[in-house]
Structure formats: C-alpha cells, structure tokens
Amino acid sequence: MRDDDEDFARFIAVSGARLLRLAVLLCGDPHAAQDLLQDALTRAYPRWSRLRNGNPEAYLRAAMSNQVVSWWRSPRSRTLLVARSHDGPAAVDQHARADDRQVLLAALRQLPPRMRAVVVLRYWLDLSEQQVAAELGCSSGSVKSQASRGLQRLRAALGEPDLSAVRAGEKGAPR
Amino acid sequence: MNDPGLKERLDRASGVGQLAPGFAEAVLARSRRRVRRRIMFVSLAAVAGVITAGTLVSVVARNPAPAKTGAVGAQLAQDEATRLDRLGNALGRPVSPGEIVVSGVAGSSLVVAVERQPRAEESALRGRAAQVWATNSRGVFKQLSDYISYDFACTVGDSECERLRPSGLGFLAVLTDASRAGTVFVLVNVPDGRRAEVLTAEGARIPVERSSAGAVVKVRTNRPWDLTVAVSTSQGRSYQLPLPPGGVVQVDGLG
After folding, report:
1. Mean pLDDT of A167-171
2. Mean pLDDT in runs of 10 for chain B (255 residues)?
3. Do B14 and A25 count as a contact with CB atoms less than 8 A apart?
C-alpha cells in the first residue's frame, strides 16, 4: 500500500495540473474544478494498483466528464450553474487575457455538459472522434454531431460568425 | 474562430492548473479514510454468513417485520440482528431499522442505503442524505458511496415536485458495474401511497414493486445517466424524481 500511495502522490504531482486544467474547462468554473478533480481522484484511489499500469489520465478524464454530466442532471446543480452564469460581470481585470478567459468560460458553461466535454476533448486535447467516443461511452456519430453543434453554439455564445460552412471541402459549403 | 484559434483560447481559459495548497495530501487522506473503513471489517468475514434474498427485506425494513414464532422465526430474527450489527460495525455506529432508506439485492450482493447527516446547507432546506453500502463476496459490508442527497431538489419547472418536496420525494441512486455492461441497478424508494416507474433512454418502463425498504431494480440500459423515475401520487398527480449529484455510482464487482 505504501508504494501505491507514493506512486499515487507522484501521479498527482505530475498530472494534477493538466487534469485540473481539463476540469476547469469541463466545469466552466475554476472553483468547481478543484472539487471535480478531487472527487475523481478519490474514487480512483482504490483502483490505483490496476490503473497505474494502464492509462490513468484517460480513466480520470472519462470519470470527470461523466461526473459533470451526473452533476448537471441534478436540478440543484443546474440551478446553481444557472445562478452562477447570471452573476454580475466578472471583475474587470487589467489584462485582456483574463477577460477573454472569463468570456470563454461563461460561453462554455452555456453548453450542456456532455456537449462541453466533447468540445473540450476534441478541440483542446485533439482526441479523435473514436477516442472521445471511447472515453465518453458513446458513438463516434454522436461525438461528430455533438462536436459540430457544440462549436456552433460556442461561436454563437461568443458572438462570432460560424465559419464551419466556409471551410474548404465541407459538404454544401458555398464556394 | 477556427479550430487552432479555439484551441489557443481554450488553452488560456483552462488556466495554469494551480492545485490548491495541500491538494494531494487532502486527496490521499480522504481516500485512505474511505478505504480504511473497508479494511477494518475484513475481520468480520469469519462471522459473516451468506446473505439470502428471502430475509433481506425484513432485515432492513423501515417498519420491522412482525415477530416471528417458533424456532425458525427466532433464528431469522437473530440473523437479522446479526446483519444489522455488522452493518453498524461497518458504519462505526449502531444502525436501527428506521435508518434504512433502501435495501435489496444487486447481483449477489445485498445493497443498503442508510440515512446519514446531510450537509448543513441541505439540512436547512429539509434535504436528507444517505450512504450506500454493499456486501462483498464474503458478506462483509463495503461502502459504495458516502453521500447521496435526497428530498432536496426538483427538476426545473416540475411544480408538483416542488409542492410535495416538504413532505418528501423519495430516494434515487443507480449502481453501474463494468463487469455487467448494459445492466444497472436502480435503488429507489418513495413515500407510502405513491407509485414509481423507472424510465430508460431506450424507452423501457419498469414499474417499481416497492416494500417499506424501497426496491433495487435491475434495469437494462446503456445510458444510466439518462434514467428517470416517474412518481405518481394517489391523487393522480406525478413528478420526476431527480438523480442527485453522484447518484450514478460505479462499482467494481457486485458479484
């Protein structure tokens, strides 16, 4: 057990920051992200002797993605999330990047959690449709449509034009 | 915004991944506490008997079964008391039958949801909470979940649920087991006089035959997070019993 504990702690030291960044995007909220990651790690701990020989990061990604969906399905969480998104404007930061961060997180929060997870895994982690489908336990077709709709909704939330139709090679795209 | 542009923005939005001070230590401490509870009671394996479905419900009924007569009845009563004792040992405190929210069989395990102290903010709004335990192959209780809310939330727009919440809505949790892909066990209990039905994303409707200790219903579905439970009252009204945060519990081996 002692070796496992040390190994587990090492894993958190090495991968914790990366997993926390994913959690921030999955929640759209840096504060909830700490809870999400801690919860997922606590659940993974009893399985660590098996997980350590596989791909623990993939396991934790899937666990966090599914946990966010589970949170969302409780109306209490939905109410809390809605309340948070209706909070007053984020404190204006002198740095434009901080504003941009708040804007994007707010836009992400407007996506349903499953769609948000697909967008993050596809466009931030560059996982393939098949990889995302395997991690989220859904079909590649579902990932494809969720990713496409998620991108459109994100752009709409950010007030940006939907460029997907003008990318070369897109079916039905105007030339 | 093209994809590379989105990736960069997501990269910035994700922050620097600064874990809170003491994060790893807190995770390890919390994880060890959960595991320690299981390890402590391995020693009870020598005393544990095989749990049989026929006596499960009466062990954990909210309203204890009427006194049984004769030698068999006395033995059953003794078995029930032993199992409650073992559950109490697992929890670290005595357990009375009235604290059992749900009890039933999932696979070859006895699964029990036991009342626990809710968080202050939930208690203030008359919310309640439970923990979920199950026996392992040696009949020793192990914890599956340490906190599941109930009687606390309603689906947005469900006015009937809001109206009935002060008098209690019911308990709902789902157990998934990787070794049983496509099959889940739904733990559900609703107040007396109401009927419940489990609805799956695949379109199945499974009526819940509950006792005073609720029910554990085996359900075929590939989407446990999309399960809903429809509850109807004796007045012909209905509401949806919401799945709480952490309400889908992934379990290793229910046997």
Report:
1. 42
2. 76 88 83 60 35 33 36 52 78 83 89 88 84 83 89 86 87 88 92 92 91 89 90 90 87 72
3. yes
| Angle at A32 (CA atoms; ends A19, B15), nearest 5 degrees | 50
pLDDT in the model for residue A96 = 53
pLDDT tier at A132, thresholds 50, 70, 90: very high
d(CA B5, CA B11): 10
Cβ atoms of B23 and A13 within 8 Å: the answer is: no
Strand partners, B142: B134
Q: Which residues contact B217 (CB under 8 A, 6 or more apart)?
A: B185, B186, B188, B198, B206, B208
Say what the pLDDT of residue A117 is.
94
DSSP 8-state code for residue B134: E
SS3 of residue A167 by DSSP: coil
What is the ipTM score, two decimals? 0.78
Provide DSSP, A56-94.
HHHHHHHHHHHHHHHHHHSHHHHHHHHHHHTSSPPPPPS
Q: In B, which residues are within 8 Å of A70 by CB distance?
A: 225, 243, 245-248
- For residue A171, count CB atoms less than 10 angstroms from its CB and return exposed for 0-12, middle for 13-18, buried for 19 or more: exposed
Q: How far is A101 from chain B (nearest CA, A)?
A: 4
B30 touches chain A (CB under 8 A): yes
Residue A58 burial (C-beta neighbours within 10 Å; 0-12, 13-18, 19+): middle
CA of A24, closest CA in chain B: separation in Å?
Answer: 6
Per the CB < 8 Å rule, is B23 touching A97? no
Token pair of A87 as six digits: 């909070």
Six-digit token string for B142: 């192990």
pLDDT above 90 for A143: yes
Name the range with the highest mean pLDDT among A67-71, A135-139, B3-7, B219-223: B219-223
Strand partners, A94: none
A73/B7 touch (CB, cutoff 8 Å), yes or no = no
Interchain contact, A13 vs B24, CB within 8 Å: yes
CB atoms A71 and B149 under 8 Å: no
